[in-house]
Design a protein that fits this description.
Mean pLDDT: 76
Helix content: under 10%
Distance between the termini: 49 Å
Number of helices: 1
Shape: elongated
Radius of gyration: 24 Å
Low-confidence stretches: 1-44, 337-341
């Protein structure tokens, strides 16, 4: 953790002088950026001639991502008990770590561009999840709590088509993202030992979400010969893909269930400020916030006689997730002769 923090701090120290030295950030005339280095076509807020050829800009990003302690929550609920008298449960936990990203953006024709990105999340510290069980024992509703250690694996890739509005600074965006989110819960504490081998100390839980997210949105860019500011918003009022949930309770048989997302929503805001280092590329800083919500009808995949579950048992599962990321980037740019299309 300390080594990662030192490397990230050093990276930011390198890029900050260029950021601080920039002058006249707002209201600049010039050309936009779609995270594409010196791409000078789509949505330009000036009417300067477009550089002929295929204008491309690869970039790399490093940033620190964080949430509050309840930044992610998974919950399951049913009218019929899931396990014994348990009819609802909920995991709440945060995510803290370093994001590594890479992108490649190209203007393929005047006012038409494409952007491909990939991001990987590396947790830097243990984050505890608090799980609450809501049970009805026949007398009055009761709650039970236990705490887990978490291990989260999170990455995503996406592709976006950009259609510029000439001389305006605006760009229309459409594409899709594949988002893989997996958390393993282990080493629980706080659950009572009921004897007869029924102990929760060896229990384990897993949640895996394969999210397919359509992306629709817009961005606005201000660009001059020395710096650029870009703000991008994408989202969609739905969520596609599938989710799997597993949990063992008291060392007995394991609840396993899967289902497809039936709906939800996604929203992301991305801001990017860059300082141009000549014809070679840019250095800069970025910030990102996103949130996702999904819900699915889950079906258990095996019999669990200890908990009196059947294969036909169904329950509702929902996901809520949000995160912040701040960091720096380095981008290159190059130009090739005009493509024959």
């Amino acid at each position: 953790m300390r080594r990662v923090a030192v490397l990230l701090a050093g990276f930011l120290v390198i890029i900050l002088p260029g950021v601080v030295a920039a002058q006249g950030l707002l209201g600049l005339p010039g050309l936009p950026s779609f995270g594409l280095g010196n791409w000078s076509g789509s949505g330009s807020n000036s009417c300067d001639p477009v550089t002929p050829g295929l204008n491309c800009a690869p970039a790399v990003y490093v940033g620190y991502g964080t949430t509050d302690r309840n930044g992610t929550s998974f919950s399951a609920r049913t009218d019929v008990p899931l396990a014994g008298a348990v009819y609802s449960l909920e995991h709440k936990y945060g995510n803290r770590g370093v994001w590594f990203g890479a992108s490649l953006g190209c203007e393929v024709r005047p006012n038409i561009g494409v952007l491909f990105t990939g991001w990987y999340f590396l947790p830097t510290s243990y984050v505890h999840s608090n799980e609450t069980y809501f049970a009805n024992t026949g007398e009055a509703p009761t709650t039970l709590d236990r705490t887990w250690d978490t291990d989260t694996k999170w990455w995503f890739v996406d592709g976006v088509l950009a259609l510029g509005v000439p001389c305006s600074g605006f760009t229309l965006l459409a594409g899709a993202r594949y988002d893989r989110y997996e958390t393993t819960f282990k080493s629980p504490t706080g659950f009572p030992d009921f004897g007869n081998g029924l102990t929760g100390s060896r229990d384990r839980s897993d949640v895996t979400a394969n999210n397919i997210i359509p992306l629709v949105g817009t961005q606005y860019s201000l660009n001059s010969s020395v710096n650029a500011l870009t703000v991008r918003v994408v989202g969609i009022p739905t969520l596609a893909g599938d989710v799997k949930y597993k949990e063992s309770i008291l060392g007995a048989q394991r609840l396993e269930a899967d289902g497809n997302w039936r709906g939800g929503y996604f929203l992301e805001v991305f801001g990017d400020y860059t300082y141009k280092t000549g014809n070679l590329g840019e250095i800069g800083a970025f910030g990102r916030w996103n949130m996702a919500h999904g819900y699915a009808t889950m079906r258990t995949s095996f019999n669990a006689p200890v908990f009196q579950l059947a294969d036909s048992r169904e329950f509702e599962l929902s996901l809520d997730r949000s995160s912040w990321t701040f960091g720096g980037k380095i981008a290159l740019s190059f130009n090739t002769p005009r493509m024959p299309f």
